[in-house]
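Local shape tokens:
==================
===
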Amino acid sequence: MPVEILLLGRRKAATYLGCSVEELERWIRPDRVLAHDHPATPSMRLWSRDTLEKARSHVAIWRQRDQETAGGRRQEAEAQPAAAKARRKGMRKAGALLAGKVCDRLGCTRTELDRWAGDGRLPPDGEIVLVTLPKHVAARAWLPATIEAAQDCIAAWREQDQIARIARRRKPKVVSSRPQ
């Protein structure tokens, strides 16, 4: 007489292991997946008791690992706003300049500054939050030392931009190989 393999669905398999359905699906691959004809109906996942018995001893270890990684992610998520706030506060204390003042100091237009910041030649050092009545706005900011170092490069950047502008305007001439 052949031995019949008993397969359990999600809820029963999770109850058998003493874990949640989400944990079961994250930790253990099902032994069988039965696809339904209708796309709106999810496929049925089945686990054998043998598979669940082998996994039973590992449940506590997996749960502890998940809690540790979740704790680390939670700490990172909580630390990010505080770090951003500290950076912005440091930018203000260091006398960071907003785009208008940077343009005045460098003698450039806002378009040039945006181009240089966008392509990485003069990236902003951080941001400062401007508090206005209806909303808060994060503005790009540069440190004075960065602006001083960039003053030596302005002429070369403008020359590069001029060459790129000319190259965009001029289109290559198509030369026909047939005599006319």
The domain at 94-166 is CATH 1.10.1660 (Multidrug-efflux Transporter Regulator; Chain: A; Domain 2). The mean pLDDT is 83.
